[in-house]
Design goal:
The complex is a heterodimer of chains A (85) and B (479).
Chain A lengths: L10 H18 L34 H5 L5 E2 L2 E2 L7
Antiparallel strand pairs in A: 1-2
Chain B lengths: L2 H5 L3 H10 L4 H18 L7 E4 L16 E5 L26 H8 L3 E6 L33 H9 L4 E6 L5 H7 L2 E4 L19 E6 L2 H9 L30 E5 L9 H16 L3 E5 L4 H19 L18 H12 L2 H14 L5 H21 L5 E5 L15 H5 L6 H6 L3 E9 L2 E8 L5 H15 L9
Helix pairs in contact in B: 7-15, 9-11, 9-12
The chains are: A mainly alpha (85), B alpha/beta (479).
Chain lengths: 85, 479
């Protein structure tokens, strides 16, 4: 699960994490008692339709301003380690 | 006017004084700037409300309606060229290249950025003990928490380090700290305030709102916050202007008391203050009656699946590539991601990412996330039914008064239960306000009033009427 979440958890973090999450999940399990068979899910409370804006080109942030916050830059892009070492 | 007198003014009174020429906007800014900067300089020996304080007032406000009144802004709002770190090590030193819509709007209305306030990391917490920049202390008792996640904003307003502040509320993060610090906090109807430029926690729940010393100031701040923004597809045009509340009586107003949120688990002293406030409401002409919200006790479970699920997705963007912290010496890209996130995120954020990843994972999605979304429907239906019988729903905001620092940090579930009374309204997307309604053991108790979507004007009016009758004195919290 930690790998799926892209988290490196150390050995001494794993045990308390598992214990705390088990306690929370035990509490949350109460919702399994509810009969929800015919209930539609709510992903969002606001009815918004036609929220798309016109697909027109417009100025974006200057490249140097955006790259200024990057940990590592190469030329005009973000520099990252190779996917396969 | 002395600096001490200046900080006792409501924002309305201060803006009026500036308009009348008896106070200058610079005097007002400097009075607060000196107090905020002193707290910042004191670090954890002070209240630790701020993560950044402006050195001086911005340029002329050009006679805009807020007349240059200083505004404290929760750290998670992006402010161009000013640190915006959302309480996280992973964003330490991050200065965004743009400003959140709501902050821009307030600036155009004449608000001056006073500082950025400390908060729980990525707004995950109910005590402000999860910040990478240290805990915030409650000005009523420095050994106690201010609540969270907008703890820095709430404590700053209560202590007179800012005249008012912006916070955000996902499951109670404006209302609960407002209650614990003895001030007013309003979570508006979902969609009424743009989320553009807010560093996201749970997008279907996050909503910005005001933290103020009184209800009139909350209305004034909200007036300049609401409105459709084409950068936030879920934002809506507010159907009417936010007005200044004037009610003195509550004749004919029907207040519903849900037994599900006013019984078991609520501290005795909190219940006593709540009950005394209901008596006052009756004296003002309100009709107080019982109302049912049968699924409200399950809202907390649904919330602690939905919010972490959305957070696990939103926080995927913090990967050390484009901004913020990057762990050095990684062997490959995956190693860089995992080590960056290990170093950059605090324990509570990791816990919620794990919970959310689990709730969304193949094989568990239907049992957890899917069921939680169905519970959300039932919670919202309960409110719809209740509002056919009553105008507003009233509960204590927090089951307890401010708890001691460290008291709940070892027990996440106990911490989550702080949100028991506020989470149902968040799931339903409806507006809710917390106003101080008394003291228990010398600490403030908050009253929560919730209404149907877009009922803010009536909600503020009822809150104002009650506030006048209660006559809460918050001056003991001033630094």
């Amino acid at each position: 699960m930690a790998r799926l979440a892209r988290l490196a958890l150390s050995e001494d973090e794993l045990e308390p994490m598992a214990r705390e999450l088990s306690a929370v999940l035990d509490h949350i399990a109460k919702i399994s008692e509810l009969d929800l068979a015919d209930v539609p899910p709510t992903s969002h409370v606001v009815e918004v339709t036609g929220a798309l804006r016109a697909d027109e080109p417009r100025p974006c942030l200057p490249r140097e301003l955006v790259l200024a916050q990057a940990p590592e830059v190469s030329g005009d892009g973000f520099l990252v380690p190779s996917p396969q070492a | 006017m002395s600096a001490t007198d200046i900080v006792e003014l409501s924002v309305r009174a201060a803006a009026d004084a500036i308009a009348a020429g008896s106070l200058s906007s610079l005097e007002l800014f400097d009075a607060y700037q000196a107090r905020a900067a002193a707290d910042r300089a004191a670090g954890e020996a002070g209240l630790n409300c701020f993560t950044w304080v402006a050195a001086k007032a911005p340029e002329d406000h050009g006679g805009a309606p807020l007349h240059g009144v200083p505004l404290a802004v929760k750290d998670l709002f992006c402010t161009e060229g000013v640190p915006s770190q959302s309480g996280s090590r992973i964003l330490e030193g991050y200065e965004p290249p743009y400003t959140a819509t709501v902050v821009s709007r307030l600036s155009e209305a004449g608000a001056s950025l006073l500082g950025k306030t400390n908060q729980d990391e990525f707004a995950m917490g109910s005590s402000n003990e999860n910040s990478a920049f240290g805990v915030v202390r409650n000005p009523w008792d420095r050994e106690r928490v201010p609540g969270g996640s907008s703890g820095g904003s709430a404590a700053a307003v209560a202590a007179g380090l800012a005249p008012w502040a912006l916070g955000t509320d996902t499951g109670g993060s404006i209302r609960q700290p407002a209650a614990l610090c003895g001030i007013v906090g309003l979570k508006p109807t979902y969609g009424s305030v743009s989320r553009y430029g807010m560093i996201a926690f749970a997008s279907s729940l996050d909503q910005a709102g005001p933290l103020t010393r009184d209800v009139g100031d909350a209305a004034l701040l909200l007036r300049h916050m609401v409105g459709r923004d084409e950068c936030d597809a879920t934002s809506l045009e507010f159907p009417h202007e936010i007005e200044s509340p004037t009610a003195e009586r509550l004749d004919g107003v029907r207040l519903g008391v849900p037994e599900e949120l006013t019984g078991e688990g609520i501290e005795q002293g909190v219940l006593e203050a709540f009950t005394a406030t209901l008596d006052r409401a009756r004296e003002l002409g309100a009709e107080v009656q019982a109302v049912g919200l049968p699924h409200a006790p399950h809202a907390l479970s649904a919330y602690y699946l939905i919010a972490p699920a959305e957070a696990s997705s939103n926080l995927a963007r913090f990967d050390g590539v484009r901004y913020g912290h990057r762990a050095p010496g990684a062997s490959d890209l995956l190693d860089m991601y995992t080590r960056t996130r290990h170093d950059g995120f605090g324990a509570e954020v990791k816990r919620r990412i794990m919970l959310g990843t689990y709730a969304l994972s193949s094989g568990y999605y239907d049992a957890y996330y899917g069921r939680a979304q169905r519970v959300r429907t039932k919670v919202a239906d309960d409110f719809r039914g209740a509002f056919a019988e009553v105008d507003f729903i009233v509960t204590p905001t927090s089951p307890t008064v401010a708890f001691r620092l460290g008291e709940r940090t070892g027990d996440p579930l106990a911490m989550y239960l702080s949100d028991f009374c506020t989470v149902p309204m968040s799931l339903a997307g409806i507006p809710a306000i917390s106003i101080p309604c008394g003291l228990s053991e010398g600490l403030p108790v908050g009253l929560q009033i919730a209404g149907p979507a877009f009922s803010e004007n009536r909600l503020l009016d009822v809150a104002h009427g009650l506030e006048q009758a209660i006559g809460f004195d918050g001056s003991a919290a001033r630094v």
